[in-house]
Amino acid sequence: MAVRVISRRSILQGAALALGAPMINRGRFALFAQSDAEYSTLTVDLVRRSTVIDMLGLLTLDFPKLWSWQIEPDRFQQADFQRLRESGITILHPAVGYTTGDIYALSLRDITQWNTFITAHAHQFVRMDGPVNLEQVKAQGKIGIVVGQQNSGHFRCVEDVDCFYGLGQRVSQLTYCRNRIGGGSSDARDDGLTTYGARIVQRMNKVGMAVDVSHCGDRTTLDAVEASRKPVLITHSNCRALVPNSRRCKSDAAIRRVAARGGVMGVTMVRFFVRTAGPTTIEDLVDHIDHVAKLVGVEHVGVGTDVDLDGRDIQIRPRKKCDLDGLDYAKKVYDLTECLVRRRYSGPNIELILGRNFQRALSEIWAV
Fold this sequence. Notes:
alpha/beta; TIM Barrel; 3-stranded antiparallel beta sheet; 12 strands; 43% helix; globular; disordered N terminus
């Protein structure tokens, strides 16, 4: 694939000014302190000019720390923000899924705490409420937060969709496991989208809230796409064709159906959704991007890493290998971009993958 010609001098100057980074011979940079990792001028330029959207990206998987930031916003320091900025990510969708207890109350608390945090740090963060926010956040130098939930059990009635939309929720995964709406990928049986579930989808369409089917079972996934008059998202999953033993990964049939309606699938960086066994690297992750691009077109694949900037391994107890080999998750966007460049994706297509695809789909969904 062709790569557009760019000015090496302008990239070197711009990146050096923005990052204070030392120059590396042959047009490569060391971008991160205390790291020998080098990135091409093309990679740096692509990340710096893109609105990078991680459609399942966490500020941190250390939830006690996150809750302390939300309850006492002053605990979140400038160094914490700078680390997020240096990652190259512009917009995060840090959704969690409540499946037990009072799901309504827990979801309400979660969204309220996000609103408190964003308001307290309005000079650094902005809530993504509509298409205009998607267009402006990069130029503002802020990080966008898409407020969402990974389980729609908090919709006790159809009118609750309007209520949570009013609070700022813009994405809702229909099911994490079986609920009144439909079946989950981990359920022994999936009977598909219920009549009530279809009504929820229709109301989400009406108010401008994105339907997410990442954890839905196969039948519920296909039913939801059929029920929706707007694009449906797979914010974070991978391809079952490459990981046949994972029901959490999406079938080719589901990927085709989502793409046919204008939807986008974000690929995850969680090891066991990338490869069944053996060494698993960023190259294996890009195999999933290749698969989606060849199956339905590069316009329907994006990023939904399902991890923070530290990886999952340091949080898992007892230890279970979740991270990709050789990947420093603080640099994941740069490593992904560098790999896409090696695969000879064009600059414009890399920009689509990094964020423009999700930006296009979200803008269409959120328009009312």
